[in-house]
Design goal:
2 copies of one chain form a homodimer.
Chain A: H1 19-37, E1 42-43, H2 45-52, H3 56-64, E2 70-71, E3 75-77, H4 78-88, E4 95-100, H5 104-111, E5 120-127, E6 136-137, E7 140-144, H6 148-154, E8 159-162, H7 166-179, E9 183-186, E10 199-202, H8 205-213
Parallel strand pairs in A: 4-5, 4-8, 5-7, 8-9, 9-10
Antiparallel strand pairs in A: 1-3, 2-3, 6-7
């Protein structure tokens, strides 16, 4: 259906919207939901731009890819734009997500309360350490990683967050892909090799820090 | 000195290297260090490209911004390229970093052992909860956020990781900036407003997940 590579570097089909634009939509959605939670009903590309640090022109261009959303001079209806962005990003539903690796970050993700109103819920957590398997983390019992493939298939899970040590990450990723996972949020500080129909996003705080130190004296 | 905006959207000076390129350098460095740790001494833009999921041409173009690094046909010397990238990104030294907010993520960051060989060390951790202040997290004693400005100034800290709840993030950010912080890694799911000489990077797992669900069926 979609011909993007998971890396988001290439556009295979000129009709497709560049992944760089898709990557900005969650930022717009987050800011709009925050305005909405303050009871604000309308906004402009200028106001939104100041909040998210992106030019008003860029925001208008990005949003116009998906149709007409605002009238000249009246700005955007926040509830309408929120609904449309949720629809576009497919977070008008709730996705089941699993966590593999119950170290500090895995624990934090299992207990994070910021998923539920943004389209996700953690449903299972895994580790391969016998001393952790069967223990509770919040409402979850830690499951044995050896049962991962079977449970992913049975529950038709499409999304996994990977917080295992770097040397184990590629092997677990291979297992996940084989079991039907289509999207991996990878916290291990290594690049994963996956088929082109599987997407990976990376969270590496050190890479973000290094991107900033470049500019420091 | 540097005329980028912190958002990395605009290039104020044509001599400057676009922030999007700077953002890829930590990814190259991470992959090169991983090859190096396996005892590998040389690589090519093709090999590196396959690891990081970026085209060989793009990698050559990015790296050539900083001078001549490889000879046609012989590839890159990994130790040399690692050293140059560390130098460019200013992680040929060790930066002191503080953590504000000792919830699950703050704990994970305080205990994370992946900073030390990549240019950073956590030196202080803060919270404003009286029941947490004075408690130990690993080797750190949790300090009172009310002493933040004073300690940042005294120790000339330039970099902070912010893991406080969203409603508190902007106020703490203002305090940090006033005390001399120049780079903030923000885990709170809100956009921060900072002066143009301060840089912010964001870590929001939900935004990454939403960027992937767009492509799912």
């Amino acid at each position: 259906m979609h011909n993007f590579t998971w890396r988001g570097q290439t556009r295979m089909n000129a009709d497709r919207i560049p992944d760089i634009i898709i990557g900005r939509l969650p930022v717009y959605l987050r800011a709009l939901q925050r305005l909405s939670s303050k009871g604000i009903q309308t906004t402009s590309s200028q106001e939104l731009g100041e909040i998210v640090g992106i030019s008003a022109a860029q925001i208008r261009k990005d949003i116009s890819q998906f149709g007409e959303f605002g009238k000249q001079g009246t700005g955007y209806s926040i509830p309408f734009l929120v609904e449309r962005l949720q629809d576009i990003l497919k977070v008008d539903r709730v996705w089941d997500v699993i966590v593999i690796g119950m170290g500090d970050i895995g624990h934090a993700l299992a207990r994070y309360n910021g998923f539920s109103n943004r389209g996700f819920r953690v449903t299972m957590v895994f580790d391969n350490d016998p001393s952790k398997i069967g223990q509770k983390v919040g409402e979850f019992e830690i499951l044995d990683t050896s049962t991962l493939a079977e449970k992913v298939k049975l529950n038709k899970i499409k999304i996994a967050m990977l917080t295992v040590p770097a040397p184990a990450a590629q092997e677990i990723s291979d297992q996940l892909v084989k079991a039907g996972i289509k999207a991996i949020l990878n916290y291990a500080p290594i690049n994963l090799t996956v088929p082109s129909n599987v997407r990976v996003q990376y969270i590496d705080p050190v890479a973000h820090l290094q991107r900033m130190t470049y500019y420091l004296d």
